[in-house]
Amino acid sequence: MKNVTDRTSNPFGMRPPFERNDPGTHPAVFGYGDANADFQFIGDHPGVHGGATTGVPFTETESGAAIQDVARTLGFAHGPTDEPLLENCFWNYIHMCTVEAGRSPTDAEYAELERYFDAELRAINAHILVPVGERATDHILREYTTQRHRFGESLDMDDLHGRDVRGRGFMVVPIREPTEWSDGDRERVVSALEAILNSDYRQTKGVATLVG
């Protein structure tokens, strides 16, 4: 079913329950992009992947710039880097709220926002989930596939980078944390996503449901 909204940022009106941000930063970096996207890039939190002052995921940081570069290469993103135009692509974080500089969200804070992330993910209903970094990848594999046990207690993100994993109604393509990329990592994920784009990927949801 097609979402009917003209809102690029926070298209479903999420209202997270707390504000622990520094002055001059947004209380939250909401989901952003095409609400009818087939591809959803999922980051960790604004302190890692950016957007605390722009309000847009994957901006302002080295990691954000790397993800934008991939998205632009694939034709998903156009226009200004602080407020790009996204087509067939949606960006969000497993923990959308900003917290005080110098710390990461606690486990309790991640848990508190989990239902908001889950509601947005299910509303977008993308075919391809692209988690960025170990925390986002671990969450997606645990909650949206039956495959997490295959990869051991600690995820080997070098091995998972650009690899497709069948989920419960999704295909998951993890991305290693961009600040840790080495030679060939950018090309590996671009090639993996290009191959999906060039396939009949809209059949993924039915196939993944049977396999995952």
TrEMBL record:
Residues 1-23 are annotated as: Disordered. Keywords: 4Fe-4S, DNA damage, DNA repair, Hydrolase, Iron, Iron-sulfur, Metal-binding. Residues 1-11 have a biased composition (Polar residues). The keyword Endoplasmic reticulum does not apply. It comes from the Archaea. Pfam families: UDG (PF03167). Signal peptide: none annotated. Residues 30-158 form the Uracil-DNA glycosylase-like domain. PANTHER family: TYPE-4 URACIL-DNA GLYCOSYLASE, TYPE-5 URACIL-DNA GLYCOSYLASE. This is Uracil-DNA glycosylase. It comes from Natronoglomus mannanivorans.
